[in-house]
Amino acid sequence: MGNEESVSSGSREQTIPGWGSVEFGRRLGLKALGATALVGGVAALAEASSAAAATKSGTIKIGYVTPSTGALADFAGPDKFVLSLIRASSQYAKGITIGKTKYKIEIIVKNSQSDPSIAGQVATELIQSSGVDLIVTSSAPETTIPVSAVCEGAGVPCLSTVCPWEAWWGGFTGNSIGAAGNAVGTPPEFCSMFFFGVPEFVECFLPMWNRVLAKTNANQVYAGMFPNDSDGNAFRAAWPPTQNAIVGAEKGTPWTFVDGGAYTDLTSDYTNMISTFKTGSGGKSCDFFINCPLPPDFNTFWKQASQQDWNPKLATVAKVMLFPTDVYALGDLSNNVATDAWFTPNSPYKSSLTGMTANTFAANYQKVTKQQWVQSMGSTYSLFEIVIQALKKVHNPHDRKAVAAAFKQVNYDGMCGPLNFSAATNPAKGIGIIKPVGIQWKPGSTELVGHKKFSWSPWVVDNTLNKHIPIQAALEPTNA
User: Fold this and answer.
1) Which of these CATH numbers, 3.40.50.720, 3.40.50.2300, 3.90.1150.10, 3.90.420.10, describes 199-341+437-462?
2) The whole model's pTM is what?
3) Which residue in 230, 254, 376, 421 is a FRET match for 143, CA 20 to 30 A apart?
């Protein structure tokens, strides 16, 4: 069990087996609903939920499901610090006035233990035992999809983040992803989310590839390190066609994709894959690199690639190198490895709760925890900002349908920047899109107010998708 503390539619469809697929998401959703059945059944849960919503309590209860332990724990590393700031903010500390009534706010935290079944189970506990009015959750499909599945079944408002929208969309509602990568089907009634998807990954990485290509003699051939798991199969299916569509729209020269093969997670020897990348295609070796492996697998692979003299001109990685732990484990081999960033301290954004800047937020985290800032702190903070924005739109915070509908109307500026859940450009209503920037890990510390110096830092090197965030350093080849 988790720990608790008070404290556009298309006519064609495709099946992408992975986090961007209907099937993978449904499996996670079924796990959640299976856990719910064990503790009383979906129908009983929905009935209990409706009864709780009818009460006139003076307290708004918010459940937060997060992977405090387990394989996804790095995402939850900043939780205690972030929640301390949230609870200290005026609206959470003093309460919020809705209509003529002043409501207290209570946040109840549950640990998913990085397990989809437990994520669904603790979400059920929050609804049945704690009587929460709404739930927020973060960090990967394995957390967000089971929680959303339970909430949708029980009729409880839920807000998710840090999960590709394609996975979330197909994960618990029976919806599909169209052949063009579009959202097909009716949006869930009670659940909303914010993050980004495969198009944003491509639009973040591809400009960096083009810039390195323009100033080097690199081959326009890229390697894909995609495991035979949910993430790997999704990227293998979605990346090439999405990239080709973008390149075609820009009337650019097509790129050649070389697949390293659907290897098993935790493989120890990548010699054959590295040989494939060195051979490349048409007599040209792979000079660009994309992946989405487990962190220890990338560590093993990248060290072996260096030892076997495969040194791509630019490595753009997904799912790994998001946290300093990955970087320090690789040491000098981390130099100029690029990835995406959805929160950075040098952004011009600030808290909608207190006015605190992103820079001060990150600097205080480092001062208090003695740890280096991480991206997930921004999205976790924004979860609780958006809750306040939604509650301001309703007459009764215990009216779950009204609160769920309010989430889909939020349009505000906060710690992760501007988010509009009803924008016409979104994949569907209720999905807010963050525009990531490209970063490279380089020696030294980026500037923070009162910052501690660290050996490695993520520097913003490309802001093609988000011009609000200034560039901090030059984009350089990973291997010159």
Assistant:
1) 3.40.50.2300
2) 0.87
3) 421
